[in-house]
Amino acid sequence: MFKIKRNSRRERILVPVKYYGFVAIIKFKVKIKIIVKEIESGQPFFWSVIPFWKTKKDSITEQTKKVFHDGDLEKQ
After folding, report:
1. What range does the domain containing 56 cover?
2. Does the pTM exceed 0.90?
């Protein structure tokens, strides 16, 4: 369900929605995914940015954790 303006009022109707995903590599080799949304043959528009991350295994606890950056961010 999606709210759409029709006949000067907002109605909740079921409309087809397409999502497009783009992967970008930006400065310092950081990857992000950009999501673009298009509602029923309308104009596509920006929807979200999702960070890509690496997983690192801790040698002591054997648990994996997400790493969003590398190095000291204050020095970059």
Report:
1. 18-75
2. no
